[in-house]
């Protein structure tokens, strides 16, 4: 990946609505070069989606988000790949990560309520043969996501203490 494409990715990561013309101006390049580079990165699945970060707490949204630690036994020849694939194919699953440490996979899911999340864990996730254990954590509030701070906080009004 060359520096030109990396610069385009950096700009699109900050604002996916930037036009090729604006990016070209910012980088001192031709619009056609930017268009070609973006098309190539889309075709190669380097760019897979243009997304919007939404502060759902500002919307009347009752969705429940949970992070689930999954401990599982890797399969011979495929490791964790086939287990991760079985899990990420469920529509309620938003993300799956292979992790280092005390557990193997971290699964992010969304449900309409706690009961729906509990049903997913007990009826779908826990029944997968390779899954040894799960530990579920519910997200109560998001303060920051993808570098975006959701809340405005007051300045620090503590007194300075000096020795």
Automatic annotation (TrEMBL):
InterPro entries: Dimeric_a/b-barrel, HTH-Siroheme_Decarb, Tscrpt_reg_AsnC-like, Tscrpt_reg_AsnC/Lrp_C, WH-like_DNA-bd_sf, WH_DNA-bd_sf
Transcription regulator AsnC/Lrp ligand binding domain boundaries: 68-141
UniProt-recorded name of the protein: Lrp/AsnC family transcriptional regulator
């Amino acid at each position: 990946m060359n520096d030109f494409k990396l610069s385009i990715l950096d700009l699109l990561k900050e604002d996916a609505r930037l036009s090729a013309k604006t990016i070209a101006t910012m980088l001192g390049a031709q619009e056609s070069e930017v268009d070609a580079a973006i098309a190539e990165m889309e075709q190669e699945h380097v760019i897979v989606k243009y997304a919007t970060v939404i502060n759902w707490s500002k919307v009347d949204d009752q969705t429940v988000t949970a992070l689930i630690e999954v401990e599982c036994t890797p399969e011979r020849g495929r490791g964790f790949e086939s287990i991760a694939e079985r899990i990420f194919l469920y529509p309620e699953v938003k993300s799956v990560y292979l992790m280092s440490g005390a557990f193997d996979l971290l699964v992010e899911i969304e449900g309409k309520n706690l009961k729906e999340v509990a049903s997913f864990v007990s009826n779908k996730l826990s029944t997968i043969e390779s899954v040894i254990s799960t530990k579920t954590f519910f997200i109560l509030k998001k303060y920051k996501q993808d570098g975006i701070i959701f809340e405005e906080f007051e300045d620090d009004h503590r007194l300075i203490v000096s020795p």
